[in-house]
Design a protein that fits this description.
One of its GO terms (molecular function) is 5-amino-6-(5-phosphoribosylamino)uracil reductase activity. It is an enzyme of class 1 (oxidoreductase). It is found in: Plastid, Chloroplast. The protein is an alpha/beta fold and 599 residues long. The chain contains 19 helices and 18 strands. The strands form four sheets. Strands 10-9-8-7-11-6-12-14-13 form a nine-stranded mixed sheet. Strands 2-1-3-4-5 form a five-stranded mixed sheet, with helices on both faces. Helix 14 packs parallel to helix 16, helix 15 packs antiparallel against helix 16 and helix 17 packs across helix 18. The longest helix has 23 residues. It starts with 15 loop residues before the first helix and ends in a 5-residue tail after the last helix.
């Protein structure tokens, strides 16, 4: 999926002719100043290509940051390209170096963002060093503080020349290229800076600003071409959110319909839970649904939803910001809002909407009481109207798509006080003496504790032969169906084992367990803790740096910070059983007991 896709579109770019001119000038012009300018133009071209590659992973597996790499020869010719398919798969730099082969010697690597992964994974940096790269151009530093600058320092310590856009390189073309780097990872940057997912409000309206007739009928305002674009937007999102009115009136499915791969979670936000018992969203054969509501609302209906496998999350005060902060804690990076005007207005007023996609159909329906895309915002003068930033216009079939940002992408490198500075401000804050260490996503400081971390393990099968699994999650999900005398179960094990990423392995295993529970081994509930323990013991035994990391937490409580998994995680308010944290602490004690320095 190219960068020209709706979520990441930017209006400025070099034409192919300009790129060719930059390449030719770079190799042929002998004037020093012209070479300097042309090299900047060439750098901008290749960085923008790296962002296009990075954007290709959107829609496969989510959530994860987007990385792309272009390797060019000394003459500026592209020798190899690669992008990170998903978290836990082979880095873009490794793929690009392999594609370039010997042509990478003394070449330049272009990265849309500084490499960053869980603890101890230096594959990206090592690939560039071993490939003989002399220069690395990076679009932006990693937005997460504990990863920011680490790879840049590592590359420079190996003798590579590293240039960062906006720091070591500047100019109009460079600034435009840097902007494309910000856009392709806007969800990660927003997560780092504002602790809410990157939220996009999408709606379709008639030329006179109506999203439905006065009767409520809304099918179809936009064209099929526009609806296909919406499916694409869904496929790029971690979740799609609607309000109760949309469920009652439209009975949507909210599926991506893109032929497989990642399917966004479906979220219904309803304060009163005045929802129908029959709805397409209660069918979770393809993807799950979460209902968020006010605490205490329609307890019987909550039990009904739970009986159908629908997760219900209660809030003391139901408002968009509280909900988005919760899904931030669940690790979501991007959310697509497809709600009605009332909820849209609340979301805008809460400051959680970052971008708007408005499909305008060349139709007029009129109607004094016909609903509009955004409800009451409390504005009484046109001077109070919210202006979009970086507005883009595109014809999509017969419709016009207008998109723009309601708020700018946050600074990718916010100034965050150091530990010493924080202690000066508040002496009671002593992170070094923390009693609780939380971990969840692989990009967290202790992300290597996650089952999704990219650390392969070798485990024996029933016959005693050892097989390699790409992650603990791959192994754990497959064990649900091991030994079941059914060809579908055996195929499922094979599909999980060959899944490209831990996220895909989890999706396959959970989906099969949900759709065909009879295929799950009969003793699973009694053996799953032991299965996880064996996998974790293997992981932390064969990787010395992970073992050291685990031992370094001695004296601290380890908690998987999943707000929704009440078995393996700690839960939203500490009500979870935290079995993953318990097993890691058990392993820590065992390893410390075996250590010769522990006596």
């Amino acid at each position: 999926m190219a960068l020209s896709s709706p979520l990441m579109r930017v209006s400025c770019s070099l034409t192919p002719a300009a790129a060719a001119t930059a390449t030719t000038a770079h190799s042929n012009n002998t004037n020093k100043n012209n070479n300097f300018l042309c090299s900047h133009a060439l750098d901008a071209v290749h960085i923008r290509r790296a962002t296009e590659l990075a954007d290709k992973s959107a829609g496969f597996t989510s959530p994860h940051p987007n990385f792309g790499c272009v390797i060019a020869t000394q003459s500026g010719k592209v020798a190899g390209e690669g992008f990170l398919y998903a978290q836990g798969t082979r880095p873009a730099e490794v793929l690009a170096a392999e594609a370039a082969g010997n042509f990478s010697r003394r070449g330049t690597a272009y990265l849309n963002m500084e490499p960053g992964d869980c603890h101890g994974d230096h594959a990206a940096v090592s690939a560039l060093v071993q490939a003989g790269i002399e220069r690395v151009v990076i679009g932006l530093r990693h937005p997460l503080q504990h990863l920011r600058g680490n790879s840049i320092r590592a590359l420079r310590s190996e003798g590579l020349q590293v240039h960062v856009l906006g720091e070591d390189l500047s100019g109009k073309l460079i600034e435009e290229a840097r902007k494309s780097c910000l856009l392709v990872n806007a969800p990660l940057i927003c997560r780092a800076a504002s602790r809410v997912p990157f939220s996009v409000l999408k709606y379709a309206m008639t030329l006179d600003g109506k999203i439905a007739a006065s009767s409520g009928h809304a099918s179809w305002i936009s064209s099929r071409t526009s609806r296909n674009r919406v499916f694409e937007l869904r496929g790029r999102s971690d979740a799609v959110i609607v309000g109760g009115n949309t469920v009652r009136r439209d009975n949507p499915r909210l599926t991506a319909r893109h032929g497989g791969g990642h399917m966004p979670m479906r979220i219904v936000m309803s304060q009163t839970l005045d929802l129908p018992e029959e709805a397409n969203l209660w069918d979770f054969s393809d993807v799950s649904t979460i209902v968020v509501t006010q605490r205490g609302a329609r307890k019987r209906f909550q039990k009904f939803l739970a009986s159908k496998g629908i997760e219900v999350v209660e809030f003391d005060i139901l408002n968009p910001r509280e909900v988005m902060e919760y899904f931030h804690d669940r690790g979501y990076l991007s959310v697509l809002w497809e709600c009605g005007g009332t909820l849209a207005a609340a979301a805008i007023s809460s400051g959680v909407i970052h971008k708007v996609f408005a499909f305008v159909a060349p139709k007029i329906i009129g109607g004094k009481n016909a609903p509009t895309p955004v409800g009451e915002l409390g504005m009484v003068e046109m001077s109070q109207a919210l202006d979009l930033i970086d507005v883009c216009y595109e014809q999509v079939g017969p419709d016009m798509l207008i998109s723009g940002f309601l708020q700018p992408i946050p600074d990718a490198t916010p100034v965050i006080p150091s530990v010493d500075e924080t202690y000066e401000i508040d002496p009671t804050v002593t992170p070094y003496e923390s009693r609780i260490i939380f971990f969840y996503k692989t990009w967290d400081p202790y992300g290597a504790f996650s089952n999704f971390s990219p650390h392969a393990i070798k485990m024996p099968d029933a016959s005693g032969d050892y097989a390699t699994w790409l992650s603990v999650e791959h192994y754990y999900q497959a064990q649900k169906f091991v030994g079941v005398d059914d060809p579908v179960a055996r195929d499922c094990v094979g599909n999980i084992k060959s899944a490209k990423s831990p996220e895909e392995a989890a999706r396959i295993g959970r989906s099969m367990q949900r759709q065909q529970p009879d295929l799950v081994r009969s003793d699973w509930e009694s053996v799953k803790i032991e299965v996880m323990y064996r996998a974790l013991k293997c992981k932390f035994s064969i990787y010395p740096h992970l073992n050291s990391m685990l031992l370094s937490t001695a004296g601290s409580v380890l908690v998987e910070a999943s707000p929704h998994d009440l078995f393996w995680g700690g839960g939203r308010d500490g009500e979870g059983l935290n079995y993953l944290g318990r097993l890691l602490m058990q392993l820590r004690s065992e390893f410390l007991g075996e250590s010769p320095t522990s006596s």
